[in-house]
Task: structure prediction
Amino acid sequence: MTTYAVGNDVQALVADIGSYSTKIGYAGDDHPQALYNSTTAAVKAQNQSSSNFAKPPKRDFTLRCVDGANGDGDYDLVNPVDPVTGWLFSPPSKNSVNNDTSSSLSSNEQSTTTADAWESHELVNSYLQHAFQHSMGLSRGNGEMDTSVDYSHHHPLLMLDKSHTPPALRQRLLEIMFETHNLPSVFFLRDAIAACYAVGRTTATVVDVGYSGTMVTPVYEGFVERSGVLRNNACGARNIEERVLEMMDGLVVSQGGRKRKERMRRRAKEKLELQQQQQQSAVEPSPKKSKRDDKGHFIKEKGITASAITIPDYLMPLYQVRRASYNPRKDPFHAWSRLALAREIKECGLGVAVGPMGYVSSSAAPGEDASADAAAAAGEGGAVINPAAASTNMFLTAAKLPYTLPDGTNVEISTASRCDVVELYFGTDEQNSLYRDNVFDETVQKLEEYSKEVEDFIAEGEDDEDETNEGGSKGITSSSAAKGDPYSNTSYRGEKSSRYAGSRRNNKKTHYSPNVISTKLYSACLPYLRTEPPNGLLNEGGNVSNMNDNYFHFLTSASPAQMVCDAVYRCDRDQQAKLLGDVVVCGGGACITGASGVVGSSALGGGGTVGGTSLLGDEQAFPDRLREEVEAIVHKHTMGWRVKVTSPNISERAICSWLGGSILGSLGTFQDMWISKQDYEEYGAAIVNRKCP
Result:
């Protein structure tokens, strides 16, 4: 047995590909060595090729254009993690390589490859290769890097995945690790279990506040209770950033005003005049002569008028401020740059803050009738103050925090506005509840579209499969796939064995289109995309008889506190007390501090100085508020239950799952749990569902 522990020459690698960032490092370390954004800029291929992308992905696209000085060309933003499901999944509409599937069903050309047909899995390959070669120095010595000691195929890989990932996707990723990267051993670990290990627990309810949503997963004695897994796509860090943008846009209009536009017009006029002078000097090196009309009168050239320049009434990112005409880039990159600026405001503690238990949102809900006094006191950005909070919210009179925008505008952010943003997680008022319900409806509609796309793709693939079977291929017939797992017989190993079998019969090597494998993979994932169970799974009352059935029953529109209670109540009765006894909070979206550090004495009727110990406030404000919200729900009917919430410090909260994988991969008792290359060759990819529950 090979040991990959701390202190040996070969250490295990730990990889966590999240919806916002990708984290890769050595087992036993306290921080990943490779940490970069999961969203990249790439050009998608327009015709049949061995890759989904015509050009390699680029990562530096926030502050500058990716295709020249003033444009982004055909580049688009891509991410391996699907924001709707949270899987490493690509719907058929994203896979441009499958637009024409008839040209390479049977070919003897050596250039025809069996590249992965999924955009997300190709990005996983690219991200791992980027980390191995550039961030960790594990190159194969192909000339790109001068490293001749350690190679990536000597290190095993412990990869984290979501608790609700379908088995077929895990099998596909296992094949990629062995067939493409030639790793010696691989293990797949659920991210919720890894988060428990990071805080020294084996039984807990994990609340993972990620970038695309919040996942609540009960873990009992080291195993995921799949019946209690819940997901809310409305309570994610991206939703918080969008709310910060709305708040800052209102501040730009209300506090910037006419002075901001006049200042920016003068600045834009100076930049444009300088550019014209540089262009004229480059084209006309001779002295400029005055122009005359037919009558001999001098012609006065029209200059650039300040009124001709349009100043946007929103928060402009830095790249847009640097441009003379303030024209934005195309939509994906412009929206991402604005979100990046909102993320910076959020992370420095100026855009968000966790309010205390019982906090009432200061902004009135749409259509809510406000009193005369509340209507007279308009909030920031023209928002009407909620009359219920006018007399109880002490943050309305708290000291405001100054912030300078990239365009030079000075604004002041009130503490009440910062707390209103975070009430998306905890608020039960009409405005926040309606927002969560709308996102829930949009997610259900998107999943139904995914299911329809997959069904159409499978129907088209059946004709291609019949043509392939007529050519003499083995192991990928419909009858063999119908038995057991529909994907097991159509994998990398199944495709390779069929190719070699055809070579022995016809003395030539037969290549199969990636579409044949992708059709079976979609067939295996289709039940998990459905939002409703089959009719046979409903009892007489119309309720689901078994929550462990394979369909997407994880969606909810409840707040994270209510999600914790619902997830625990879905588990067995004898497990509920232990699951509520330990609630683990992790994820980058939970790195929000409290508002106590910026509440000055002015909030209590005193002077106007800012009090408190830190502008960032209490680092444990989010876990403490979640504990109080959960206790308020549980103690309504069960007063004796104790609710305890545990969370790492704010510097480790975003990488909590990776830390748990790093701890597990460095243990000596874990070394016999690896899936070796020999196990993969003997049992196939389905072994991942037995050894990695």
